[in-house]
Amino acid sequence: MKRIVVVGASTAGLAAAETLRREGYDGTLTLVGDELHPPYDRPPLSKQVLSGQWDVDRTALRTPEDLAALGLDLRLGAAATGLDTAARLVRLADGSTVPYDRLVIATGVRPRRLPGDGVAHVLRTLDDALALRERLKPGSRLVVVGAGFLGAEAAAVAWRLGVEVVLLEPAPVPLAHAVGTEVGQILSRAHRDHGVHLRTGVTVTGVTERGVRLADGELVEADEVLVAVGSLPNTEWLGGSGLPVADGVLCDEYCRAAPKVYTAGDVARWHNPLFGTPMRIEHRTNAAEQGMAAARNLLHPETGKPFAPVPYFWSDQYDMRIQAYGYLRGHDEVAVMEGDLSERRFVAAYRTGETLTGVLAVGMPPKAIRPWRQAIATGTPWHDALASNAL
Amino acid sequence: MRVELDEPKCVAAGQCVMAAPDVFDQRDEDGVAVVLEEHPAAELPDGVREAVAVCPAAAIRLAER
């Protein structure tokens, strides 16, 4: 094995590359990224970068020295456009090809767009964040389409900058599908408390220079529009490669998508044995953990370990720090274990079947949440979790 | 090796503490990471590099010397 190619130069790809080196791989290691920036961190984009608190440099995932020490064949600004698994070649946008003995696919996701939203902002890349930041002037009007975590964070930052914010959400309760109706209601109340105009149950049919058109014909006027309605996995370049693709690159619990091909991060859909279900996770922490796991399993398939993490995410909105462990989607029940929903200071536990599968905490000491992670990792039965409240 | 923590970057996820509990802790009040052992033994505890890699804020760095 002399040549490993990692496609995708963000968190998952970098974690894979670093792990390969750390585990002793000393052959050619090509890291391909479609953006020109060296690997940078995305969570601050909708927080410290958008608010202007951080310079661009602060988002670098590694110092130039640490990056250089990896001895990478770094191909930035070079989108992968095709994969030939028989010839073991990756094709790049500039027409060149890169041969591999082993491949890691970590091409992430891109923002979902609305039909005809060409003039609207999206928020995925550093350039996206800088372009929006430039336009957020006090007194200007911003419409955010989509009140998910990204839209909510951006709305909170814009509000703090003195922007008039309207937040439009098609669902009756923002985030209900992810965190449940009750918790979703509590989180969305923060917008209204801060004077961000949250409108739920509205469908956007178009974006124009003057604002956003709703299904009933109303025009919501805006100087700038941010579309934050979810993302799509970047798998088009794999067309014709024979790799299994269905809302992500499908892989087994070892992150293996095909012989000699592994995948990690936002783009990877794998079977998580801890929860007994396939999942694709768009969280910062998962990208790093899965990049590491894929790299290890690639180097040592004979001692491969199933990738069975407890997913983790956090979100900062106004004065709230939201933290969650586990897999909340598709849950059957939510129970408040500590604190009080109405005070926006609580730990909520999530039941799926008869098992504790997740917790979400707001305004609680982070240290107090860690035992819950352990309880999820060990598959604690729900009735035990209830009985040992606060563990 | 020296463990460097960029404290303002820390998002209080506690991933480092889970990876290397002998080297990291979290402050009680806000969960921000604390380096307990700035100069771990030359033979780095396994979890330290893991902590650097999984830190969701890229706030931990290992510096030579």
From TrEMBL, chain A:
Keywords: FAD, Flavoprotein, Oxidoreductase. One of its GO terms (molecular function) is oxidoreductase activity, acting on NAD(P)H. Residues 3-291 form the FAD/NAD(P)-binding domain. The keyword Oxidoreductase applies. Residues 312-385 form the Reductase C-terminal domain. Transmembrane segments: none annotated. It comes from the Bacteria. GO terms for cellular component: cytoplasm. Its cofactor is FAD. This is Pyridine nucleotide-disulfide oxidoreductase. The lineage of its organism: Bacteria, Bacillati, Actinomycetota, Actinomycetes, Kitasatosporales.
UniProtKB/TrEMBL annotation, chain B:
One of its GO terms (molecular function) is electron transfer activity. Transmembrane segments: none annotated. Residues 1-29 form the 4Fe-4S ferredoxin-type domain. InterPro entries: 3Fe4S_ferredoxin (IPR001080), 4Fe4S_Fe-S-bd (IPR017896), Fe-S_cluster_ET (IPR051269). Keywords: 3Fe-4S, Electron transport, Iron, Iron-sulfur, Metal-binding, Transport. Its cofactor is [3Fe-4S] cluster. Ferredoxins are iron-sulfur proteins that transfer electrons in a wide variety of metabolic reactions. PANTHER family: FERREDOXIN. This is Ferredoxin. It comes from Streptomyces flaveus. The lineage of its organism: Bacteria, Bacillati, Actinomycetota, Actinomycetes, Kitasatosporales.
